Amino acid sequence: MILFNVLPLLVLLLVAYFAIIRPGQKRAKSQQQLMQSLKRGDKVTTIGGIHGTVRAVDAQTVTIAVNSKGHELTLDKEAVKSTRRS
Question: In the UniProt record, does the keyword Transmembrane occur (predicted)?
Answer without folding.
Answer: yes
